[in-house]
Amino acid sequence: MRTQRWSLMLAIAAQLAGSSAAPAQVMVDGKPDTVHVEANDVPLQEVLAALHDKFDLQYRSDDALQTRKTGVFDGPLQRVAARVLDGYDFAMKITPQGIEVLVFRQRGQAVVAVAPASAVRPPMTAAEVNHYASGHIR
Asked: What total of structural domains would you count in the chain?
């Protein structure tokens, strides 16, 4: 009997020691003009999903939105959404029916457009022809 108690106490102690790290979570509360969000190491996608569930915030993105977010965000819905999206390029449409957000990419990620070598250059303007004729390369 005594051994079982000891085993139970050790199991409980091990569980408590293992649960010292706070679990990842997001909590959303309030009304659209007074939103309160608490995020604890959650992907941006989960924060936006919680805002969608509570306030019908619509969002789209080609990005996986896996950047981890931690913090407390308070204010009107559009301001909270903008603060949560800090570090991303995005467009926000605000209408009486709600808010739609299009998330492009994280800032600092370059978008490179490459034209093939066989691409035809547009014809030169008269000023470019004169510039080229005077010995300058286009």
From this structure: 1
Per-residue pLDDT of the chain (138 residues; tens, 9 = 90+): 555 554 444 455 445 444 445 567 999 999 999 999 999 999 999 999 999 999 999 999 988 899 999 999 999 999 999 999 999 999 999 999 899 999 998 887 655 555 565 666 667 678 777 776 777 655
Pair of tokens at residue 57: 């915030």
C-alpha 62/C-alpha 104 separation (Å) is 7
Residue 6 lies in a domain: no
Strand partners, 25: 40
Residue 10 falls within a domain, yes or no? no
